[in-house]
UniProtKB/TrEMBL annotation:
GO terms for molecular function: protein-disulfide reductase activity. This is Thioredoxin. GO terms for cellular component: cytoplasm. The record marks 39-40 as: Contributes to redox potential value.
Amino acid sequence: MSAPAATDEPVHVESQSDLESFVSDHDIVLVDYYADWCGPCKMLEPTVEEIATETNALVAKVDIDELQSLAQEKGIRSVPTLQFYADGTMAEQVIGVQDKSDLMSVIDGLTD
């Protein structure tokens, strides 16, 4: 059975089980841990939205204020933090604002 296609825009994670199903149902998932009060998160948002549009990766957004226990369990200590999952397993994590080209390189590396 093939995984459902990723959407062209980021999806909002509502719960831990939401995140688990996204990760298990999609080949490549980029999880953006952010907070509304975080300036760098706002700077990164257009880049994350472009990645959702331009790649087959599912982009999932986790508000660390809404889902504090999930953020703690995943070891998120600062935002923005991006985690990349490939075939259900975390493959890469980057912290802080990143260049789009660097993020695309990570995704390209996971699809090889």
